[in-house]
Structure formats: C-alpha cells, structure tokens
Specification:
Layout lengths: L3 E4 L16 E4 L6 E3 L4 E5 L2 E4 L4 E6 L2 H7 L1 E3 L4 E3 L8 E6 L5 E3 L4 E9 L28
Antiparallel strand pairs: 1-5, 2-11, 3-10, 4-9, 6-8, 6-11, 7-9
Length: 144
C-alpha cells in the first residue's frame, strides 16, 4: 500500500529502521527545544500530513528507548489517525520521569504503525452468550 504524505518539516520522511520493523519513527518539528517538566504533557508537531485509504488507520505509539531512558511516553496510546483526517500529525508526549526532559527539533519521539480496520455492524439484542470468564476482568485470574 502506498500512503500519500506531505512533509513540511526539515527532516527525512518516517522510515522503517530495519526490515523487521513494524513502525516508522516520527520526529519532532520544533522551532525551539521543548522542556517537559515532570508529569507535563505537550502536543508535539511533526510537520507531516498523510492521506490514508478508507479501511486503514495509522497508530501513533511510544518509542521504547525514549520511555526507558528518559521516561517520556505517548498519551492516548495508541493514538489513532483516521483515514479521513488531513491535519498535521501531532504526538501527545508526557514526561513520567522526576527530571526535566528536553525534546529537540528532529528527535525521534514516537512510531507510526499502519493497520487495516474492520468495520462492523452493531446489532442490539436483549442478551448475549455466557462464557467461563463471563464478566471477570481487571485481574480476576490473580497474579500467579
């Protein structure tokens, strides 16, 4: 599948780092460095605009290295970019560390994964089938 993209940043297009990569790194497009205080969240522009085919989405996900090394991750993760969205791609970052973290222009801040989306039709009913699990959730099977 080919995705049409406009790149208004001064950075290279997102690309797969290795042949086995699922996501393409997205870079910050900033006029000045951004200092993220502990627990501060910020919407970070990328300078990218995409056109997806109907039936697809792009997901914005955290980068593991940024999370473990600096405590920076994405909120609303995975973030969904719908096929009909044409605005600039931006990433919601949060600093979960105890120290100020600085994001510079061109830093790799997230990854973008493309997925096929299945459309369903909801059918309203009065009951649904039972299973062994039923309503059990949120740790109902224990820790061990």
């Amino acid at each position: 599948m080919k995705v049409r993209i406009i790149n208004r940043s001064s950075h290279p297009l997102p690309a797969y780092a290795t042949s086995g990569s699922s996501g393409m790194d997205m870079r910050a497009f900033l006029e000045t460095p951004l200092e993220l205080q502990p627990m501060q969240r910020e919407l970070v522009p990328t300078g990218l605009f995409i056109e997806l085919e109907d039936g697809y989405e792009a997901q914005v996900r955290p980068r593991s290295g940024l999370a473990i090394k600096q405590g920076i991750t994405c909120l609303n993760s995975p973030g969904t970019i719908d096929a009909d969205y044409r605005g600039e791609l931006k990433v919601i970052l949060i600093n979960l560390s105890n120290e100020v973290q600085t994001i510079h222009d061109g830093d790799r801040i997230a990854q973008m994964v493309f997925q096929k989306v299945e459309k369903v039709e909801l059918v309203e009913v009065d009951s649904i089938s039972e299973t062994e699990r039923n309503a059990g959730g949120f740790g109902h099977t224990g820790r061990k």
